[in-house]
Amino acid sequence: MRFWQLLILVTTLGGVMSTTANERPAVMDGFPPSETSQVTKKNHRDWPYNQWSFQNFGAPNNTVMVPRGGEIHHFPRDETRLSEFKIGDASLADVFGANAADALVVIQGDTLIQESYWNGMDPHRQHIWYSMTKSLVSSVAGILIESGQLDLTKTPADYIPELQGSAFDRVTVQQVMDHTSGLAFEENYVDPKSDFSLYYAPALNLGYLPGAADLQPGESSIYGVYDFLTQFVKPDLDTPPGQLFDYNSANADVLGWIVSRLMDKSLDEVIRDAVWQRIGAEHDAFIAVDRAYMPVATGGFNATARDSARFGVMIRDKGVYNGERILPASWLEHMLEVEASDLKAMAANANYAAADWIAYQDMWWVLDDAAGEFCAVGIHGQVIYINRSTDTVMVWFSSQRDAASTLAPEFPIKLNAARAAAKFLAE
After folding, report:
1. 279, 320 contact by CB (below 8 A)
2. How far apart are CA 320 and CA 327, in angstroms?
3. Cβ burial 223-239 (10 Å sphere, 16+ → b, else e)
4. In the Cβ-directed half-sphere of 394, how many Cα atoms lie within 13 Å?
5. Cβ atoms within 10 Å, residue 38
6. What is the predicted pLDDT for the residue at 255?
7. How far is CA 153 from CA 145, 147, 150, 176, 243, in A?
8. Got the DSSP string for 130-176?
9. 3-class SS of residue 334
10. Is the confidence at residue 207, as pLDDT, over 70?
11. Residue 150 in contact with residue 173, Cβ under 8 Å?
12. In whole angstroms, what is the distance from residue 126 CA to residue 56 CA?
């Protein structure tokens, strides 16, 4: 039995198809839509409404554009390479389509070898990235690190004086990037009485709270996300920085603030100039903004699947795209320089004991540092999967029911299928 066949057998013993697969009650049904099918600010992250809102994120949320530029780089196509790949009797597309996927694009080398869409998604529709945005912002920060403007050993407060006296003046920028910053704030997406739901999500302008969207500047000490970072987030005095990986989106908003402050541009302009107008994108992207209309670094970016794959190819190729240097190679190798302390910090978090991640470094999830296998991941199942050893990039968007990212039942089925497909392609 070939290795990839054994891997498929092992990874699918628990079942290939999700029990939540592709049931789809009516959403936005009619003109105007019926009351029960109407997507709102309140329900837009709930299934099944998210199958529409994740592809139309600017409807329930405020956004700013990230325009494309230059000549479009078209992928050559060869959709025969995965024709013999099966998991049981199911093709790769069958597995993804049965597990809440909205889109799947597979690139090997510079060739597009798989492209599939579900739930009304198509090649020209942007989809929310959620926390894949963190990996984008971290990648762009490499420009500042390469130039010496940003020192990973300094604290965020060294660059943002407003953070002095906050939870972020005792940690390093590297600890912020690795989510080992020891914050007391708990990120809870599902409890409507959590600090996340009552303060963070309304400041981000991504969550529903009665009256929150109508708040005016000066009417609350926490208006935008920068107010939340400086005035609400406290240190966990029982958790010294650097010891425990504890995923917390506030870290990415701190990094986005640093990037904007040092580059003297809003984050949408930074992404536009540094990346989006330089990778041959087909379509404009856009990014959600907080209540103060500042771009949401932690999870606001929206793009088409193929353009997301172009970004992934550039990261796979260490900052080069179509022969042009886009981002520094040394920084895009750094996320795979996993130390024993990184492994220990991940292992210390019991929530990830059953997952395949070995580390979280520079806001990328690492599967195999030696093989160059790592991911950008968004809640509800958005993934850019990169495998340098097999020269592959896979992008999939999802509208999973659970706000649990890697712990949702559909997530490991898709990730295991992608890893098996990458090994099949390499052979």
Report:
1. no
2. 7
3. bbbbbbbbebbebbeeb
4. 29
5. 14
6. 98
7. 11, 15, 9, 11, 16
8. TTHHHHHHHHHHHHHHHHTS--TTS-GGGT-GGGTTSGGGSS-HHHH
9. helix
10. yes
11. yes
12. 7
Q: Give the helix/strand (H/E) hosting 7.
A: helix 3-11
User: How far is it, in rounded angstroms, from Cα 60 to Cα 62?
Assistant: 7
Q: What is the CA 143 to chain-centroid distance, rounded?
A: 20
Distance of CA 392 to the CA centre of its chain: 18
Distance CA 255, CA 194 (A): 24
Confidence grade of residue 191 (pLDDT, cut at 50, 70, 90): confident
Determine the distance from the C-alpha atom of residue 399 to the mean position of all C-alpha atoms in its chain, rounded to a whole number. 13
pLDDT of residue 188: 81
C-alpha distances out from residue 171 to 155, 180, 200, Å = 6, 9, 21
Task: Show me where the domains of the chain are located.
Answer: 3-144+254-426
The pLDDT value given to residue 18? 54
Q: What is the CATH number of domain 3-144+254-426?
A: 3.40.710.10
Q: pLDDT per residue over 102-113, tens digit each?
A: 999 999 999 999
Position 362: which residue type?
D
Question: pLDDT at position 187, please?
Answer: 83
Sheet bearing 285-288, strands edge to edge:
63-66, 285-288, 301-303, 127-128
How many C-beta neighbours within 10 Å does residue 191 have? 11
Q: Which helix (H) or strand (E) holds 341?
A: helix 340-347
